[in-house]
What we know:
By secondary structure, the chain is mainly alpha-helical. Helices cover 44% and strands 8% of the residues.
Amino acid sequence: MIVSLTSADPLRRQELLPVERKYSSAELIDALREYHTVSGQRVTLAWTMISGVNVGKADAEQLAALTRACPSSSI
Length: 75
């Protein structure tokens, strides 16, 4: 399974992926961790880099914070 995050900033993610309004990034990460626990299947997080939108140091730091609790071998 591959899931696109595109941005770890909730407001920017809402602009790029309107689904953020219904399911927050934090809820998504929780659901992916639960999916992995139940199914044993790995999840790949995708990040499409868009010049001037989500490629800065702050974006990388937000991504790291969002995914920090995810085991690297599972998500």
